[in-house]
Design a protein that fits this description.
single chain, 202 residues, alpha+beta, tt1808, chain A, six-stranded mixed beta sheet, 5 helices, 14 strands, 23% helix
Length: 202
């Protein structure tokens, strides 16, 4: 989803009201600034759904206490920072599902599906927000140009671990002790396995 900043600062209470009253647009909140998140492509939406399903299925085999949420659920990164990841995972008991809850307090894994309009933001400013959140342990970026998944991991020395997964690989989410194939994310998404060479090139 693309982010478009609204021109003025608002309070956290004003943002919460905006979030409650807005049914067609999601608004992320960062230090008083509000970012309207526009919709994504069908491939983007499909990959987000696949990510929820793949992680949930993998967690179920381990009787894990973790919960997986889609982009309707906000992730609280700090008292003044809230985003709507495409997929998020939390293992905190405070984040158990309930009818009156609309956000999670301790995101552990964040998945963002890249697009032309969001890639720079997801790799730059948004990654910075996730790095600054102490509960986030892994950040997953999923390409929609071709089948490629990148994972950044927090270590004792900072965010120094990076892995790229291609078709045929098994994705490993170490912070929640699960793995699943790259193909599970791209199932029925229409995303090509590799970038096609320009016409005339071999």
């Amino acid at each position: 989803m693309a982010a478009e900043r609204k021109p003025h600062h608002i309070t956290i209470e004003e943002w919460r009201k905006l979030a409650r009253d807005s049914h067609d647009v999601k608004y992320e909140y960062v230090d008083g600034q509000v970012y309207a998140m526009s919709g994504g492509s069908l491939a983007h939406g499909r990959i987000g759904s696949n990510a929820v399903r793949a992680i949930e299925d993998a967690l179920a085999t381990k009787s894990s206490p973790c919960n997986v949420y889609n982009s309707d659920v906000a992730a609280r990164l700090s008292p003044t920072r809230y985003t709507y990841p495409d997929t998020s995972v939390t293992c905190d008991e405070r984040d158990e599902p309930a009818p009156d809850k609309t956000e999670i307090l301790a995101p552990r894994v964040i998945v963002e599906v890249l697009s032309d309009s969001t890639e720079a933001y997801d790799r730059g400013q948004k990654f910075g927000l996730y790095r600054a959140c102490p509960t986030v342990q892994e950040y997953v970026l999923v390409s929609t140009k071709y089948q490629s998944v990148e994972i950044f991991r927090r270590t004792e020395k900072g965010w120094s671990i990076y892995h790229e997964y291609k078709p045929g690989d098994e994705i490993e989410l170490m912070s929640i002790d699960v793995d699943f194939p790259v193909a599970a994310l791209y199932r029925n998404s229409g995303v090509p396995i590799a970038v096609s060479a320009p016409e005339g090139e071999v």
